[in-house]
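Thread title: Can someone regenerate the structure for this chain?

I was given the following input by a collaborator and told the matching structure tokens would be attached. They weren't. Posting the sequence so someone can regenerate them.
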Amino acid sequence: MLTDGTIKKELEALKSDLIHSIKELVSIPSIIDQNSTKYPFGENIDKALRKTLEICKGLGFRTYYDPEGYYGYAEVGQGDELIGILGHLDVVPPGSLDVWKHDPFDPVIEDGRLYGRGTQDDKGPILACVYAAKALMNLGVTFNKRLRFIFGTDEESLWRDMKKYMEKEEKPTAGFTPDSTFPLIYAEKGLLQIVLEGENETNLLLEGGNAFNSVPDNIVYTGDKQEELKAKLIELGYEYEYELKEKGVKVLGKSAHAQVAEKGINAINRLAIALKSIGITSKAIEFIVGEIQEDPFATKIFGTCEDEDSGKLKFNIGKISLKEKETLSIDIRIPVTIEKDEIVNKISRAANKYGLAYREYDWLKPIYIPKDHFLVRTLLGVYREVTKDMVSEPISSGGATYARAIDNCVAFGAVLPGRTKTEHQPNEHIVLEDMFIALEIYAKAIYKLTCCDSSGAKGR
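Best answer:
Regenerated them for you:
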């Protein structure tokens, strides 16, 4: 008979294998390479996909590698209905290595934490789900529905992987993605990524930032008036930290995910403010200083933009480039009840004042699943059963997860309430004790979703 004790015993036996697999996967620097001609998103992302499928095949799953290299999946069970668990294997760049305690692609366990880029977002959590299913397989349960782990490769960029999957493959009827927090996310803001661009009519050359959805933690200025810039940074206050480099001034910020831009310090914005103060300017700099300053809500442009379900609009300038053209790469998280067109009209008008044109880079519509939906009730019930946390409620998020890719899907873990989210930040890590709690939650959730027949009887 399947009991809490038998599940826990089997999960305990798999813990060391899970950690080994996470380390194997994290050691692959699966950052997007747009210049690759052989692979859609670069050789390292393809290596991560193939390694994941290799792990799954070794665990007894049926596996499939998309011949074009956009996605792969692993499957177990029988039946007409397909339950999906979606995760991604690409990661954002690590940023400045100076602030990492360990090499981001050489995972290390220290003080009960496993460090490395991708440990929390999303290699660790998706492998925890795989091993949770493996525990059920070892216990001989009957999967009355097919369970499919869908592995994406372009989540941190344009979701071209999921677009390919949806064109070519069967769509799950329901599922979850382990790419956020517990207990679960029932609403996700609209995600609008845009580029503001114009001709560079100055002699100023500047490049900084890594990704739309990451608050830039540093930018190096190598142009004129460096001594004046240093003096201005000091004048602006102790928080305006900088470092002297051999050929420039490195303005420092604090990295954070764009969904919580207010928790970061945007180095691009700070450099723009300082440069404008010493008489060095451009269209992009004028826009930043005139419209944004250091406001992660862009209140001057959008006013008070928020709703009860999903909170405030978030605004992040993730990248700047001043070459032949001036470009600002911007990530905007839009409350679920606010219309996209309203936001586009306001940002377009503001940009036009500075000679910058609006161009849409990517758009992901918001999702909202009612709290009384069967999926929300089932997953929340499992979470409460395992953790005994009867206080935490489903929440909304500014994050963009694969829950948007299919109907009847939510983000479910793997970060426990009150724990620090470290994705997209230096020293990204998972707390192993928490991961093992998540492992049990996922095992029981998979059992509830896939091992019940239409009458509600359990499979064994």
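The longest strand covers residues 190-199.
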